[in-house]
Design goal:
By secondary structure, this protein is of the alpha+beta class. The chain is about 55% helix and about 10% strand. The protein contains 28 helices and 16 strands. The protein has a five-stranded mixed β-sheet with strand order 12-13-14-15-16. Strands 1-2-3 form a three-stranded antiparallel β-sheet. It has a two-stranded antiparallel ribbon with strand order 4-11. The chain is elongated and about 115 Å long. The chain starts with about 30 loop residues before the first strand and ends with a helix.
C-alpha cells in the first residue's frame, strides 16, 4: 500500500484483473483507516485482495486475560460499589439541614400512606393491616438501595387490583408468594440488565391500561361506597351485581351519605391542590412606615394561609379518616336490630391485629381447610385439609407473576424518571424494588412499587435524601404498634372514597384522540388493551397490549422501507439502486427480494442489461437467514445474467454475507461510486463481447449447413440481435 494509508486515506487499487473475475483469497494486509460510514466510528482495515479492495473492521476476539480485566473493570470498581449501595454516597455528607427536610417530608408521606395503605389492603381483598405491612418495609429497603430520593415505595392501587383475584382464589398466602416471586424476577432483571424489556410497553398500552385500571378500581369500590354486600372479581361481574343490588335496594344509606360527603371534601381539594393565596391589592404609591408594616402583615397572613392549605392538601386523607372514624365511633353503641341480630349503622373496617408482623419466609406450600362434609346418616361433620404444593401455586398464579413484576418496574422507573433530573440508573431501581418485595414478603407484605402521588408529596415537601423513607417507615411501625386498635372504627366507605379520588384522575380521555392524530396504527394496541382489561382482567389486558405492540413492531421490521430507483452511470449504463432504511433481518429478506424482482424486466434479455446495486449504509446488523437469502438472490439474478453489487457494507453484514460461501465471481463489494460505475461498465463490455462471440460462432455453423440465401436472411437477423445488445 502507499504512504497515504498511514495518513488514514484510501488509495484504491485497480478493481478488476484481465479476466474480469476478482477472486477472494486469504487476507494478506491490514491497514488502519478511518471511516465516516461506520455507526460507531470504529477503525477499519483496508484489505487488498487480488485485484479487489475490501473493507473490514478489526477483530473482536479477546483473550481470557482481557475478558477477566474487562469483567473486573465493569463490575468490581468503587464507582460500581457506590452505584449499587447509594447510601455510601450520601450518608457521609448527611447534615442537620438534610435531617430537617427529611423529617418534614417523612411526616407528610406518613399522613398519606397510612390511610392509603388501609384502603389499598381492602381493595386487594386483604385485612387492613396488610396495607401497613406493605408500607413500611419498602421505605427502609429503598432508603438503602434506591437511587432517587423522591420515590416513595409502598402499595399502589394498580398492584392492589391486580392481586385481588389471586387473593380471592388462594387467600393471603397467594399475595405474599406473588410479592416474593415478582421481587425475584425484578432482582434478576436488574442483575442481568434486562430493563429494556420495560421499553416494549408502549405509550398507547400504558395510557389505555391506566384508564382501564381506573375504571376497574373505581367500580370495585362502589360496593363499599353504597354499603352493598356482594362478591365479584372482574369488571363485568362487578357491574352486573352492582346494578342488581341497586334494583333490590341493597343499600346502606348511612354509608352512602358518609361516602358522598367524603367525596365532596376530597375531590375539590384534589382539584385545587395547586391553588395558592395571593395578595391582589395594588401596592401603595407612598412607601410610608405604616403601609410597609401593613404590607408585611398581609404577606405573613398569606404565607400562613398557604402553609395551612398545603398541610390540608397533604393530610386530606388522614383528615377524612379521622373525622369519619370519630363519627362512626359515636354511633358504635347505637345498633339496629335486624332479624333478631345487631348491625352497625356504618360499616366499619373491623378488628385489626395490633403489633408488628413476625419475620418468616413466604409459605411455599399451603394447607387449606376445605368445606366441611356432612354425613347424611348422622350429624357428624368432617373437615378435610389439603396441601397445595409450590408447583400448583405457581400454576395458579400463572402470568400474574410476570405482569406484577413488569408493572412494578414500569411504575417505579417512571416515577424515578419524573423526579430525577440527573441520569437515572434503571438497573439500580430494579434491584431496589426487587429487594423491597423479597424482604417485604417476609413480613406479610403484598407487591409494592413506587407511587406517583406519594412521591409527589415527598418531592413537594422538600425531601433531601432517601432517609426520608426511614422516617416514613418508622411512623408506619408506630401506627401499627399504638394506633391499630382505633383503626377498626374507620368506615369502609371512607376508605373507598380515598381510593376513588386517587384513581379517577388516572383517566386519560383525550389520549385516544392524540394517538389517532399522531399514528392511527397505535389505536390497535390501545383498543385491545382497554377492552381486554375490562372484560378479562388487567393482567390479561397488559399482556394483550404488549403482544399487539410487538406484532406491529415485527410487521414494521418485516416490511422495511426499501428505496428503489433506476439510475444510469456516466457512460449511460442503467442500474437498479436499492437502499433499505434499516437493517434487514430474516422476516424482511423475502420482502426485499420481491421488491427488487418487481423492478426488473421479466425478459432475461432485457434484465441482463441492468445491474443491481445494494447500498448497505443503513444496514448495521445481519443474521444467517438474511445472508442465505442474499446468496439465493445473487444466484437467481446471476442465472439471469444480472450483476449484483454491494456498496457501503458494514463489518457485521460483510461477514454474514461472505460467510455463507457466495462464489467469488458473483460477490462484488465496492467502496465508492467510481468503483461501482467501473464495475458496471466492465460487466456490460463483457456482455457485448460474449454476445459478439456467440454471433460469430452461430454464423460459421449456419454457413456450413444452409444455402447462401438462407444464410443472408439469418445473417440479417443475427445482426439485428447483436444491435439489440
Amino acid at each position: 500500500m502507499s504512504d497515504k494509508s498511514t495518513n488514514h486515506r484510501h488509495n484504491y487499487e485497480k478493481l478488476l484483473g484481465n479476466d474480469y473475475q476478482p477472486k477472494f483469497k486469504n487476507i494478506r494486509e491490514y491497514h488502519t483507516i478511518d471511516s465516516d460510514n461506520n455507526e460507531n466510528n470504529e477503525k477499519h482495515d483496508d484489505i487488498t485482495e487480488s485485484g479487489f479492495t475490501l473493507r473490514l473492521e478489526e477483530s473482536d476476539d479477546m483473550t481470557l486475560n482481557e475478558c477477566c480485566v474487562w469483567f473486573g473493570q465493569r463490575y468490581f470498581t468503587r464507582e460500581k460499589l457506590r452505584r449499587r449501595l447509594p447510601f455510601i454516597d450520601w450518608l457521609p455528607r448527611y447534615s442537620l439541614a438534610d435531617l430537617k427536610g427529611d423529617i418534614i417530608a417523612g411526616l407528610s408521606v406518613a399522613f398519606t400512606i397510612v390511610p392509603q395503605g388501609l384502603a389499598l389492603a381492602v381493595l386487594a381483598g386483604l385485612p387492613a393491616q396488610y396495607g401497613l405491612y406493605t408500607s413500611f418495609m419498602g421505605c427502609f429497603i429503598y432508603a438503602l438501595l434506591g437511587s432517587c430520593k423522591d420515590v416513595a415505595v409502598g402499595p399502589t392501587s394498580i398492584m392492589a387490583i391486580i392481586i385481588a383475584p389471586y387473593v380471592m382464589s388462594g387467600g393471603i398466602e397467594y399475595s405474599i408468594i406473588l410479592a416474593f416471586m415478582a421481587g425475584c424476577i425484578q432482582l434478576l432483571f436488574g442483575i442481568l440488565n434486562l430493563g429494556f424489556i420495560v421499553d416494549f410497553i408502549s405509550y398507547p398500552v400504558i395510557s389505555s391500561f391506566s384508564s382501564a385500571a381506573a375504571i376497574t378500581i373505581a367500580a370495585s369500590q362502589l360496593k363499599l361506597l353504597f354499603g352493598m354486600h356482594y362478591s365479584a372479581s372482574r369488571f363485568p361481574d362487578t357491574m352486573y351485581k352492582f346494578f342488581h343490588s341497586m334494583t333490590t335496594a341493597d343499600i346502606n344509606w348511612w354509608d352512602t351519605l358518609m361516602g358522598c360527603l367524603s367525596l365532596l371534601f376530597l375531590i375539590p381539594i384534589q382539584l385545587a391542590k395547586d391553588f395558592r393565596f395571593k395578595d391582589t391589592r395594588n401596592s401603595p404609591k407612598k412607601n410610608t412606615s405604616s403601609s410597609s408594616s401593613s404590607s408585611k402583615h398581609r404577606e405573613n397572613w398569606y404565607t400562613f394561609l398557604n402553609g395551612l392549605w398545603v398541610m390540608t392538601v397533604t393530610a386530606r386523607n388522614a383528615i377524612v379518616v379521622i373525622v369519619g372514624g370519630f363519627i362512626a365511633a359515636l354511633y358504635y353503641q347505637s345498633d339496629i336490630d335486624v332479624d333478631g341480630g345487631q348491625q352497625h349503622r356504618i360499616t366499619m373496617t373491623g378488628q385489626i391485629r395490633t403489633g408488628l408482623p413476625p419475620f418468616q419466609l413466604p409459605p411455599f406450600s399451603i394447607q387449606q381447610q376445605q368445606q366441611p362434609m356432612v354425613n347424611n346418616n348422622n350429624t357428624t361433620t368432617t373437615t378435610i385439609s389439603a396441601d397445595i404444593e409450590f408447583g400448583q401455586i405457581f400454576s395458579d398464579l400463572g402470568t400474574g407473576v410476570f405482569v406484577v413484576a413488569l408493572l412494578g418496574l414500569m411504575e417505579s422507573v417512571a416515577v424515578a424518571k419524573a423526579f430525577n433530573t440527573n441520569k437515572l440508573d434503571a438497573t439500580q431501581e430494579m434491584i431496589a424494588i426487587g429487594m423491597c418485595n423479597i424482604l417485604g414478603s417476609c413480613f406479610g407484605a403484598f407487591a409494592a412499587t413506587g407511587s406517583f402521588s406519594r412521591s409527589a408529596v415527598n418531592h413537594n415537601s422538600g425531601v433531601r435524601t432517601p432517609f426520608g423513607g426511614v422516617i416514613t417507615g418508622s411512623l408506619v411501625l408506630l401506627a401499627l404498634s399504638t394506633l391499630a386498635p382505633y383503626f377498626q372504627y374507620i368506615p369502609q366507605t371512607v376508605l373507598a372514597t380515598i381510593i376513588i379520588t386517587a384513581v379517577i384522575f388516572m383517566l386519560r380521555p383525550l389520549d385516544p384522540f392524540l394517538i389517532w392524530k399522531t399514528n392511527k396504527v397505535d389505536v390497535l394496541p390501545y383498543v385491545s388493551t382497554f377492552f381486554v382489561c375490562l372484560i378479562l382482567g388487567l393482567e390479561y389486558g397488559i399482556v394483550a397490549g404488549i403482544a399487539t405492540s410487538v406484532m406491529i413492531l415485527l410487521y414494521q421490521m418485516a416490511r422495511p422501507k426499501v428505496y428503489i430507483v433506476m439510475k444510469s452511470t456516466p457512460d449511460g449504463y442503467p442500474f437498479l439502486y436499492v437502499k433499505p432504511d434499516r437493517s434487514v433481518f430474516f422476516p424482511s429478506i423475502e420482502y426485499m427480494k420481491l421488491k427488487i424482482n418487481k423492478q426488473l424486466p421479466d425478459s432475461n434479455e432485457l434484465s441482463s442489461k441492468i445491474a443491481v446495486v445494494l447500498d448497505g449504509e443503513h444496514m448495521f446488523r445481519a443474521d444467517s437467514t438474511f445472508a442465505l437469502g442474499i446468496k439465493n438472490m445473487i444466484t437467481s439474478l446471476s442465472d439471469r445474467r444480472v450483476l449484483t453489487i454491494f456498496y457501503n457494507l458494514r463489518k457485521t453484514v460483510f461477514r454474514a454475507v461472505h460467510g455463507v460461501g457466495i462464489p467469488a465471481n458473483e460477490f462484488h463489494n465496492c467502496l465508492n461510486e467510481s468503483h461501482v460505475y467501473q464495475l458496471i461498465q466492465t460487466h456490460n463490455k463483457c456482455r457485448v463481447l460474449r454476445s459478439q462471440s456467440n454471433v460469430e460462432t452461430l454464423v460459421s455453423t449456419m454457413s456450413s449447413t444452409i444455402n447462401t440465401s438462407l444464410y443472408h436472411r439469418n445473417e440479417h437477423w443475427i445482426s439485428q440481435s447483436t444491435q439489440a445488445y
